[in-house]
Design a protein that fits this description.
By secondary structure, this protein is of the alpha+beta class. It has 2 domains: 3-203, Jelly Rolls (Sandwich), CATH 2.60.120; 208-367, Four Helix Bundle (Hemerythrin (Met), subunit A). Helix content is 31%, strand content 27%. It has helices at residues 14-17, 216-236, 241-245, 255-274, 281-292, 295-300, 306-325, 329-332, 343-367; strands at 3-7, 23-25, 28-30, 33-41, 48-60, 66-75, 80-87, 97-105, 109-119, 122-134, 140-143, 163-164, 174-175, 178-183, 192-197. The strands form 3 sheets. Strands 1, 5, 8, 10, 11, 14 and 15 form a 7-stranded mixed beta sheet that branches. The protein is globular, with a radius of gyration of 26 Å. Pfam families: MST (PF04978). This is DUF664 domain-containing protein.
Length: 382
């Protein structure tokens, strides 16, 4: 007999929205999750209840293997609300269970997306999708879905009525390691959907563990430092000089200057923690404008491409990692003479410093205006 699990709380569908793509080539993506969905247009002048249910049988083989039933509502401004029923409880594995998500569609919503997602290796079965939406008589009315019990033939990348993720050109993306097929194990009709994940690799960007070659706590520190620096690099890769030099207002700092600032601050904490000293006069000349981010910084830090900034940023990090390899966890607990911060807190501060300015960089990217193009008039001259 199937268990009924009702989810009334709104959750973030972490596996689907927070895990970044690892590699993409020829429309094949490598990452540890895949998802399928249908979309229904909605128009309502008042809030209406909905209920989405499906039968799911998860048979994960990895530590973090999981499946989920999910639904999102999108309003006229493009804002999304996510409702999710996650399946990760070992007691529910290897058997069919019915999952139900209950929520409300708001009066400004224009469409709802719904479907299933799976994470990592294993076999995941889906069947008997049902969607009910409250009608004008306040009764729950069943909505007709396409291929809700997967009776139609499912071929790889063609789920007959269900959509897989598409790229910006509308082409279906293939997720490496996942296969989609019909299954003779079902709860409704004569077939179900089976998604099988094989040789799926964990995304190391979502795992913090000691890096090899370091003592345990320093190795964990290095993992966090590198996680943040990779995010900074990914955020700025591909920006051109105009975008790197953009100033939001007369008191703002450019993205290029912020990258230099991160390198300057990390260099300062290198000399402070590794050498127990302040900047020399020569070092001040090199780094002070980037460190202070004042008017001198706005005047001096510009007219460079992204290669210039990232080469410098990565070179600073290489020295940090080299020096940390020479030290142990006992060193982390020590406080430099005359200081108030121990070495651990200093490098924790480098991390939070990167995180704070990463947020600034993301905000500035959104505020960069589109580049103006001037079309010359056709004067009819050859």
């Amino acid at each position: 007999m199937k268990n009924k699990k009702i989810i009334w709380t709104f959750c973030i569908l972490t596996a689907m929205y927070n895990v970044q793509l690892l590699r993409a080539q020829n429309n094949i993506v490598e990452r540890e999750w895949t998802s399928f969905q249908q979309t229904i247009e909605v128009e309502t002048k008042k809030a209406r209840k909905f209920e989405l249910s499906a039968d799911i049988k998860p048979m994960g083989t990895a530590e973090n293997s999981a499946g989920a039933l999910w639904i999102t509502s999108i309003d006229k401004n493009g804002n999304t609300r996510i409702f999710e029923s996650s399946i990760s409880n070992d007691s529910l594995a290897n058997q069919w269970n019915n999952y139900l998500i209950a929520g409300t569609i708001n009066e400004n919503d224009t469409k709802i997306d719904f479907g299933g997602t799976v994470l990592n290796n294993g076999k995941f079965y889906f069947d008997n999708f049902q969607l009910y939406i409250e009608n004008d008589s306040n009764e729950m009315e069943k909505i007709e879905l396409q291929n809700p019990s997967f009776e139609e033939i499912v071929a790889d990348l063609d789920l007959s009525g269900w959509e897989l993720e598409k790229d910006k050109d509308g082409n279906t993306i293939k997720i490496k390691g996942f296969k989609y097929m019909n299954s003779s194990e079902y709860t409704d009709g004569s077939s179900a959907l089976l998604i099988e994940g094989k040789e799926i690799q964990r995304d190391s960007s979502t795992i913090i563990r000691p890096e090899k070659g370091y003592t345990p706590q320093i190795g964990t520190l290095v993992a966090m430092l590198n996680n943040l620096s990779k995010r900074v690099e990914q955020e700025v890769e591909g920006l051109d000089q105009r975008e790197l030099d953009f100033l939001l207002d007369e008191n703002a700092n450019s993205i290029g200057a912020l990258i230099m600032h991160l390198a300057a601050a990390e260099t300062y904490y290198q000399v402070y923690t590794f050498e127990n000293r302040e900047f020399t006069e020569e070092e001040k000349v090199k780094w002070q404008a980037a460190l202070k981010l004042d008017e001198n910084g706005r005047l001096q830090i510009k007219n460079h491409d992204i290669t210039y900034y990232l080469k410098l940023y990565k070179k600073v990090r290489e020295k940090t990692l080299s020096e940390l390899k020479k030290r142990d966890d006992e060193w982390l607990a020590k406080t430099p003479k005359g200081g108030i911060m121990n070495n651990y807190f200093s490098w924790f501060h480098v991390m939070e410093h990167q995180s704070g300015h990463l947020g600034q960089i993301r905000m500035l990217k959104k505020r960069i205006p589109e580049e103006l193009t001037i079309e010359m008039p056709n004067l009819g001259l050859d």
